[in-house]
């Protein structure tokens, strides 16, 4: 009898542990499902016209019916988004490294870069068209420009906010500048770097879609404009679902890279 009670207690503990592991995934999915279900009920109850707010079932029907068209336009959008994100992260981290190594350069440049953050980036899109034309290059450069700042500023903040006692300890142990950077400054800046990359993932999608609104003849941004001109609201929502999926894939890649990087620094 005692063994049965112990076995039952162990089983319940394992079940609770599994529930706690699944909670970060299950709760957002359940919340999203509840919102979608309520959305469906409200559109049916109030008889909202599809051109205003389509029901989720109508959106999924449009997504299934026009999946080939949407997928064809999603390919250039995804390519530009991932390429712009990679370039923005590389340039942002490299710029932050340069600023962290030179106090004079940091004092001269960083305040101006922060001030530039207050300029609405979308308002600069016409300038990029004038400078770089109507092709893919203009959209790519514009997306990189938007996503660059969060990575650069976050990385610079992380590299310059290392606790000074850690740096003094490294110097007391006769560590070189490169050793202090690799062993002390860089690991301390990892959370800042990936925080900037997570923001940049969102900003990249915004930059690509805005560029497609203005210059593209293909892509999800172009398809959204085409659908709006024909009042096909369900197609607009279907495109938004695919855009969200692309953004989630990019965000998930950042999370996976963050976990791998954090584990690598912990083992060294």
CATH architecture annotation of the largest domain: Orthogonal Bundle
Our count of domains comes out at 2
Look at the helices and sheets and give the structural class.
mainly alpha
Helicity, as a percent range: over 70%
Given the structure, what is the number of helices?
10
Description:
The chain has 2 domains: 47 residues; 212 residues, MetI-like (MetI-like fold, Orthogonal Bundle), CATH 1.10.3720.10. It contains 10 helices and no strands. Helix 7 crosses helix 8 and helix 8 runs parallel beside helix 9. It is an all-alpha fold and 268 residues long. The protein is flat.
Name its key features.
single chain, 268 residues, mainly alpha, MetI-like fold, 2 domains, flat
Quick structural gist:
By secondary structure, the protein is mainly alpha-helical. The protein has helices at 2-45, 56-65, 67-101, 103-116, 125-132, 136-160, 164-172, 177-214, 220-229, 233-267. It is flat and about 75 Å long.
């Amino acid at each position: 009898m005692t063994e049965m009670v112990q076995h039952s207690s162990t089983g319940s503990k394992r079940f609770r542990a599994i529930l706690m592991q699944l909670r970060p995934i299950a709760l957002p999915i359940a919340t999203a499902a509840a919102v979608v279900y309520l959305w469906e009920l409200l559109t049916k109850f109030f008889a909202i016209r599809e051109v205003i707010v389509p029901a989720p079932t109508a959106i999924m029907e449009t997504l299934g019916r026009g999946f080939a068209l949407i997928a064809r336009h999603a390919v250039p959008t995804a390519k530009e988004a991932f390429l712009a994100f990679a370039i923005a992260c590389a340039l942002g981290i490299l710029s932050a490294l340069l600023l962290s190594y030179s106090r004079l350069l940091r004092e001269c440049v960083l305040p101006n870069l922060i001030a530039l953050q207050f300029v609405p980036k979308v308002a600069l899109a016409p300038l990029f068209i004038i400078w770089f034309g109507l092709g893919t290059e203009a959209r790519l450069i514009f997306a990189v420009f938007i996503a660059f700042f969060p990575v650069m500023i976050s990385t610079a903040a992380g590299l310059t906010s290392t606790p000074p006692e850690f740096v003094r300890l490294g110097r007391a142990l006769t560590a070189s500048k490169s050793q202090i950077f690799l062993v002390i400054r860089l690991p301390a800046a990892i959370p800042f770097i990936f925080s900037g990359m997570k923001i940049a993932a969102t900003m990249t999608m915004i930059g690509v879609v805005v560029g497609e609104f203005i210059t593209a003849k293909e892509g999800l941004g172009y398809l959204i404009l085409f659908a709006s001109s024909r009042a096909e609201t369900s197609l607009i929502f279907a495109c938004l679902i695919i855009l969200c999926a692309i953004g989630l894939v990019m965000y998930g890649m950042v999370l996976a890279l963050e976990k791998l990087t954090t584990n690598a620094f912990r083992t060294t």
